[in-house]
Write a structure and sequence with these properties.
The chain is α/β, with parallel strands linked by helices. It has a single domain (4-197), classed as ph1033 like fold (Roll). The chain is built from 5 helices and 7 strands, in the order E-E-H-E-E-H-H-E-H-E-H-E. Strands 1, 2, 3, 4, 5, 6 and 7 form a 7-stranded mixed β-sheet that branches. The longest helix has 17 residues, at 41-57. It is globular. Mean pLDDT is 87; it is low at 203-207.
């Protein structure tokens, strides 16, 4: 196994098509680009610190996956129902192979962010938290985003995700490759040569 394979799994409690983002400011899909620069700071910083150079050198394949969770999974109880981000709890929201990691400053001041929904949100909704060299943006050019039509995955694969807040990281090795085979298979099944983008569950109208 010459090429390192690393998989980050986490549970999302909200999804508006911004983090991750595969949409323009007008909610049109961007089929060649998905970015994640607002949620799961620990994952983004960890990938930057541990894997950015290996991703650029093409000696590591790093994947990011998320399933739909309840708001109460992260201790949020802003409504009585414990709302979830999707009508299909515990289904796969997106999977992405990370192509690069850049600072949020470089993202927002560079060409990648032009006309994108997440860039508009950072500048309009969170102006005090937009430009930030200590935060990083994950860039993916190979991904599937299922949005409001998340994909069902088996109970076996769900065991690789955290039960609540936080994330789980899996580094594939000769010793555990058989154990991780269902997770790796799920990635392969849901990634293809053509990126897949569904409508976001509840896209926000940013004006």
């Amino acid at each position: 196994m010459d090429r390192k394979i690393v998989i980050y799994c986490y549970r999302m409690t909200h999804d508006y098509g911004i983090n991750p983002c595969a949409f323009t400011e007008k909610h049109e899909p961007t089929p060649d680009l998905l970015t994640e620069g607002g949620c799961m700071s620990r994952i983004r910083k960890g990938i930057y610190r541990e894997w950015r150079e290996k991703i650029r050198e093409e000696t590591a394949d790093v994947y990011l996956m998320a399933i739909a969770g309840h708001s109460r999974d992260n201790g949020r109880t802003r409504n009585k129902r414990g709302a979830f981000i999707s009508p299909k709890y515990q289904h796969l929201i997106f999977v992405a192979k990370i192509s690069d990691v850049i600072s949020r400053t470089d993202y927002l001041t560079g060409p990648l962010s032009l006309g994108r929904q997440d860039a508009l949100a950072y500048k309009k909704w969170w102006p005090n938290h937009g430009i930030d060299d200590s935060e990083y943006v994950l860039v993916s050019k190979k991904f599937s985003y299922f949005g409001k039509n998340p994909k069902e995955i088996s109970d076996e694969v769900l065991e690789f995700f955290p039960k609540g807040i936080g994330h789980r990281k899996w580094e594939v090795s000769r010793a555990n490759k058989d154990l991780l085979a269902p997770l790796i298979s799920t990635i392969k099944v849901n990634l293809s040569e053509i990126n897949h983008i569904e409508e976001a569950y509840h896209p926000q109208k940013l004006k």
